[in-house]
Amino acid sequence: MAIGLSYYDRMVPDGDTDTAQQVKPKARPSIHTAILGWFSERPRGTVLDAPAGFGHLSMKLRDMGFDVTCGEIDPEIFAAPGLTAVYTDLNRRIDAADGIFDYVACVDGLEHMTDPYTAVAEFGRVLKAGGMGVFSIPNYTNIERRIRFLFRGMFTKPISDEVYENCGGKLFNFHNSPITITILEFMLRINGLQIVEIRQNAPKVKQMLWWPVVACMRLVNCLRSADKRRELRTDLTLDSKVILGGNNLIVIVRKGDDDWQLATATANGGGDGSISNIQHGISNDQVNGDGGDGGGDNGSTE
Fold it and tell me: Which is nearest to 245 in space by CA: 254, 233, 236, 232?
């Protein structure tokens, strides 16, 4: 399965084992480890990996038996042997037919987009009904980043003219869109993608130093009405894997079909626009502010 090859593509020869050993994750290695762990439990099928970066994840998925298509806005960095990197600007369009992939994987890509809404819409378009997607983003909603924002007033470091010029003036090299978990959920929801699980790539032990603050936030949340908690989406913002989570979140989504969407509406009390806690992999205790165990799922890191 392939995206249209009218764009620039580059292939490293098969059997180039030296090159294969040199292909490293562009993101944190633990993110790749966590995502590969999830894929290892899934039936084999077609996967769109975009942005593919150096090709590490694509190569590993191929070796696991998946039929992988690699999309990358900067194909010259792609180095995975035996795979083709097709130029793909996620801010615009994925050059593929509707409903063609069983899975999509977007590792640390959305925050680099100037138009992440278009990117998510395109992922939703090319994913089959009932297909699943994996998105990793920086965890801008954990307690450490919230406190840091309070004192610094920024989610990401300012970009100097020197850094901008050294990166060739290419915006995709920067975090252009700091996306919180509630914004991501909204982007996904309006494109027919429902969160079914939130994972961590690696726990961050020092987050526990802020546990008293988190406990106070959850106590306040318990005093809110159920309607207010739904409005503020505290089932997401106070979930242990989010507020006490590490530097990154791994969000597993499913594209609904008609029957599944009907069941979702029923679970949500007749389609009030909220998403059931089961679909998030979040317990009722976490909605009420009691939280979970706060530990990592698999201790892996990108």
Answer: 236
